[in-house]
Amino acid sequence: MAAINSYILKPWLVVVIGISFIISLFLLDLSLGSVKISVEELLNIISGNPSKKAWEYIFFSFRLPKAITAILTGAGISVAGLQMQTLFKNPLAGPSVLGISHGASLGVAVFVLSSTAIFGVTTNFQEALGSWGLVLFAIAGSFLVLLSVLFASARISDGVTVLIVGLMFGFMTGAVVSILQYFSDPELIQNFLVWTFGSLSGVAWSQLRVMGPVIALTLLLSLLYSKQMNALLLGENYATGVGINVARTRLKLILTTSVVAGTITAFTGPIAFIGVAVPHLARLLFRTSNHKILIPGTMMCGAAIMLICDIDSQVPGTQTTLPLNSVTALFGAPVILAIIIKNKKMKGAF
Amino acid sequence: MESIATINQEAAHLTRPILYTQGLTIGYKTKRNTLELEKDLNIKIRNGELVCLIGPNGCGKSTLMRTIAGLQKPLHGETFIAEVDVNNIKPHQYAKLLRLVLTDRVNVGAMTVMDIVSIGRYPYTNYFAKLKSSDYEIIERSLDSVHLTSYKDRFFSELSDGEKQRVLIAKALAQDTPLILLDEPTAHLDLPNRVEIMNILKRLAKQTNKAIFLSTHELDLALQTADTIWLMNRKEALKSGTPEDLVLSGMFERVFKSSAFTFDKFSGSFKVVHPTKGKVSLSGNDVHSTWARRALEREGYQVVQDADWPISILHEEDRWKLEMNGKTFQCQDIGELLSTIREAN
Question: Which of A140, A148, B157, B213 could form a disulfide with A348, with the two C-beta atoms 3.0–4.6 Å apart?
Fold first, then answer.
């Protein structure tokens, strides 16, 4: 991809190539699954003449919302990761590492589990999933953790320590979740556990109606932050020096990140490592840290990677689906390992 | 008539300081005690002036720099930049008045030189940081004045320390503020780069009529390039003046006095004090004798002109004639001269 750096590929061409790549992955994701639907058949379904009624049902009720969720989730969680990396000036920051996803899990656990533990009311997990209440709790949880991490990081200039602080907050929220589980109904616990595996297929149209606009809006918002984020790259003193209100920018970034990470986690369960790994892929691919290019680039890479992960989670030739969280971890963890091993070059890569 | 008006305008511009302080006291205040580093400062910097702040480590150079830049609250008094109190300034206004270049190393990864320098235009651009053709012109000019035009598309992280410093200066120039502050811009640099940076800053101050204020440990360079020197010292109050006046008044000597070296008023440089082994008479005033004098002083001899001493040295016909303990030696070069003296002792 050195071609982009030497300006052989025009930016619009990169966008066209990227979008067509995402569209082909999108079609592949729609076609593969427990039943294989050919691309030809996909077109038939869309035009309204399906050969089998069942396929139409599968397509509209499961495949399509799942593929759209994959794109939104991938783009959202990756941009959240990019924002964290720039804000904390740390290449290993990301929603799952800094405990933000854990915070969202805590919110979900409090919402779902505490209803039985405290009020003795049994909540229907499937019903609760995707309700506004759950989303708000998840956002509140992630916001709480992110705010605490930021508060701690204001006193610590060392980036690695900030990560450890994030991990500790993650452990603490995990502990609270465990306590809640201890007092909960076994069936709910099982539901909650399945939720923590992460899944895109739990998002139906009714939930997508909530999630879609929220993620789309915050993604659009994050496109507006490229100027502030570029200035932050140079350090807070430099950012102040070029007239950026650092405190306000920090708050904006934290708010969008917790809304994105909180909403996504509320619907799909925690998704590991995508948020940390994808911004690095985008930097490598586009050979720049300039956020004007990097933010849309990260969105495109995130959408593509998430579609690939979703396709991969369908074990070929079987009916089995792997937990999404494991697939993303299997993809993301090696990327992060590679970053740590190349630590000396990390500062340059960031 | 028009030209006279312009000159008058310029003169007015020159006489009004871009920065001045009123009763500024800098230092640190904790709950228990107050540490005052400088008290009641009334200092000013004019447009087109290059001011160097020098002083021993720990005397408060960075504190003064940070206080003037509004990064740190003064204990008392005010700093005015273009008649605006620096502690009462709005962020966007601040960004158009002064630019502070810090010593912190900047790690930005895959940002090109162009990316970095265009950040300097941020105070003038819209929400999307869209650059207009006039912005590009200023960026080009800034890069040109630090001789980095051909580096535009290079990655910042791949540059040398000297080049990085020049990029940051270009960024400060692109910001087009009437006042530029630099905290030790020559730190981490080798001698050619130090000289180059100082020359660039000197030229910029004259060409662009910007006020440039920098702190440095490069006394020699500061004496040669600065219009005004602010001399800081833990024991005495800050003194400001032209380099030459500060040297003649003996201020320089006092501030940097140490048992290990002295300040030589004649050469304007520091000399290491060596324990003396005795006197040597050296005749001649040409370049050879100057360097022989340095070598002998390093060896610990005091060099004098009159000939009544046990060791006397004379340079003639490209050879050194050494008389010592009644014997006469012929030496090819200074190295041989020194080893002969060492052996004969």
Answer: B157
Name chain A contacts of B102, Cβ cutoff 8 Å. Answer: 235, 237-238
Give the pairing type, strands B50-54 and B211-215: parallel
Tens of pLDDT along B242-276?
999 988 888 888 887 776 777 777 777 777 777 77
Residue B62 at interface with chain A, using a CB cutoff of 8 Å: no
pLDDT one-digit tens code per residue, A63-96:
899 999 999 999 999 999 999 899 888 888 888 7
- pLDDT at res. B2: 47
Whether residue A349 lies within 8 A of chain B, CB to CB, comes out as: yes
User: CATH number for the B278-344 domain, one of 3.40.50.2000, 3.40.50.150, 3.40.50.800, 1.10.287.610?
Assistant: 3.40.50.800
| Domain A20-349 annotated CATH 1.10.3470.10 | yes
Task: Give the phi and the psi of residue B71 in degrees, each rounded to 5.
Answer: -80, -20
Residues 6+ apart with CB under 8 A from A309: A70, A74, A274, A324, A327, A328, A331
Return the closest-CA partner of residue B263 out of B278, B243, B280, B282.
Answer: B243
Looking at beta carbons, which residues of chain A come within 8 Å of B129? 226-227, 230, 292
pTM listed for this prediction:
0.79
